[in-house]
Amino acid sequence: MFNVMVVDDDANVREGLKLVVPWEEYGFIIAEAACDGEEALQKYKRQSFDLIVVDMRLPKANGLELISSIRKMDSRVHFLVLSGYADFEYAKRSIDCRVDGYILKPVDEEELIEYLIRIGEALKKERQREWLDGENSAAVILEDGSNEILIKNMLDFIEENYSDKLTLEMCAGRFNYGSGYLGRLFKKHIGESFNTYLDRVRIQKAKALLLRGMKVYQVAELTGYSNVDYFNLKFRKYLGISPSQFRKRKDL
């Protein structure tokens, strides 16, 4: 299933979109919903989405601002833009942001289905290309016998960039391998997934910074967590206590 996030400040629209078409029949599932641009951006940073359906007019950050912010970090994600009225200038700017479609409210069921079919086909082709890239990468690695070197380079890359919004896709782009293959190779050699290892590195760095007396929100930013609540959840997951509690326990 392809993950979808719906972003609209109208709760009726958010709920209505879940019912207007049978998403799962077309390979999609609505995994998240957000009521404004800021909330949507935070949820994007915590979870991967294949398609984001976003209203043009949003509080805090409008639809185009949200798309532009995400597009700077992710060229892969697909967008469908919703609008309550025809606006040529907005539509043109949406195209400039490489969105997949522009739908007027109320949403027409057949029009939305057409977009889902088209985007679903594009996503399937993208995943097939990624798989083929991974297979080709595997052949190259087997010929070169350079698995260990590649893994060492990945570990060095994580160590140097853990404070950024680092993803497996970024790492794959850096070393010119398919992300699917690289993820499998990493887990085989390290014994855990790329994201889990990255979290462990960040938490270790966070422990050192907390013991130096830094504020929790400062440590979160310096270790790659743009959301302090998410940092708290991760810290508690790995250590069983909050960052604030950790500072009081020097024996850990």
Automatic annotation (TrEMBL):
Give the sites modified to 4-aspartylphosphate.
55
SUPFAM superfamilies recorded = CheY-like, Homeodomain-like
Listed InterPro entries? CheY-like_superfamily, Homeodomain-like_sf, HptR, HTH_AraC, HTH_AraC-typ_CS, Sig_transdc_resp-reg_receiver, Tscrpt_reg_AraC-type_HTH
GO biological-process terms attached to the record: phosphorelay signal transduction system
GO terms assigned for molecular function: DNA-binding transcription factor activity; sequence-specific DNA binding
**A Pfam cross-reference name:** Response_reg
Q: Which UniProt keywords apply?
A: Cytoplasm, DNA-binding, Phosphoprotein, Transcription, Transcription regulation, Two-component regulatory system
Its Gene Ontology cellular component terms are: cytoplasm
Gene3D superfamilies assigned: 3.40.50.2300, Homeodomain-like (1.10.10.60)
Q: Which residues does the UniProt record annotate as the domain Response regulatory?
A: 3-120
Q: Where in the cell is it found?
A: Cytoplasm
Q: Which residues form the HTH araC/xylS-type domain?
A: 152-249
Q: What does this protein do?
A: May play the central regulatory role in sporulation. It may be an element of the effector pathway responsible for the activation of sporulation genes in response to nutritional stress. Spo0A may act in concert with spo0H (a sigma factor) to control the expression of some genes that are critical to the sporulation process.
Name used for this protein in its record: Stage 0 sporulation protein A homolog
Q: Which organism is it from?
A: Anaerobacterium chartisolvens
